[in-house]
Design goal:
With 288 residues, the protein is an alpha/beta fold. It has one domain: NAD(P)-binding Rossmann-like Domain (Rossmann fold), CATH 3.40.50.720. Helices cover 44% and strands 12% of the residues. It has twelve helices and seven strands. The longest helix has 22 residues. The two termini are 25 Å apart.
Length: 288
């Protein structure tokens, strides 16, 4: 299967490429910047119609990743026009080009931020989801919208200079980029096996050691007691890096994602703590 990755030079695209290659698929990257040498690359924007069409020729599926992210809004780097142009109109361009070429399998990377108070990022993603649903309905497409929590990886040094900085961010609620990539591959698998008569909008969250009962009776035996139940050997380590063991996690409902995709997130707080203990602020090795 030949798969176009829009914005594929970014973190998620580059995480997906090895998985696609290992399956025998052919990933094609369309991005304004060059990726690490790993697969076919076409330099250009999804807003450039001729380039987008050329990139799509011969493709069987699309993973639409390209877009400005919440951090671009937080830093004041992009305004409402930027978010509309790339995140909203760009999504229209991708779906219209796909429809014109008869490509009917698209995975769209949205965000759980669509449920939060209005931001430029959330508003753009909500509009883009409506475009995806409209094209699915009117063009008989198979569309899966994935809504992951934040998934910036620890190795993105433009955002996190130290592993502990990333750990404090992840502590508040996030999903590992490897789990997002696995959900994308599972989505492509599902669409290759069967046609979908609805747009699937599926939430992605991390794995958890904590049970429903733990969350319902959080720290019943005192601050940090639930954390100690599962990670006693890491209690002092967490404190030393400014991680609060008393913080109650907010777990999202991924039951539909599990039902449709067989999604099994593998990265949990135990993984983070083990990596922090083993590697400190360097973080675990990364080949990128």
């Amino acid at each position: 299967m030949k798969v176009l990755l829009t914005g594929g030079a970014g973190d998620l695209g580059q995480t997906l490429v090895p998985g696609l290659l290992a399956r025998g698929d052919t990933p094609v990257i369309l991005d304004i910047r060059a990726p690490r040498p790993a697969s076919a690359f076409i330099q250009g924007s999804i807003l450039d119609r001729p380039t987008l069409r050329d990139a799509l020729l011969g493709c069987n599926a699309i993973v639409h990743i390209a877009g400005w992210h919440g951090i671009h809004e937080e830093r004041g780097e992009k305004n409402a026009y930027d978010f509309f142009d790339l995140n909203v109109r760009g999504t229209f361009e991708v779906f219209e080009a796909a429809a014109a070429l008869g490509i009917n399998r698209i995975v769209y990377i949205s965000t759980t931020s669509v449920r939060t108070p209005d931001t430029l990022y959330a508003r753009g993603k909500r509009l883009a989801e409506q475009i995806a649903e409209d094209y699915r309905r009117c063009n008989d497409m198979n569309v899966i919208i994935l809504r992951p929590r934040g998934f910036i990886p620890f190795w993105n040094r433009d955002v996190y200079t130290r592993y502990s900085d990333w750990a404090r961010w992840f502590w508040k609620g996030a999903v590992h980029i490897d789990d997002v990539a696995s959900a994308v591959l599972l989505s492509l698998d599902l669409m290759s096996r069967r046609s979908l008569d609805q747009t699937l909008t599926l939430t992605l969250d991390s794995a958890y050691e904590y049970t429903d009962a733990d969350l319902e009776h959080w720290d019943a035996d005192g601050a940090g007691s639930t954390f100690r139940k599962y990670y006693p050997e890491y209690y002092d380590l967490a404190l030393s890096y400014g991680l609060d063991p008393a913080v109650k996690p907010f777990r999202l409902d991924i039951s539909e994602t599990v039902r449709w995709l067989g999604y099994k997130p593998s990265y949990s707080l135990a993984c983070l703590l083990a990596e922090l203990a083993a590697h400190g602020d360097r973080g675990p090795p990364h080949s990128g």
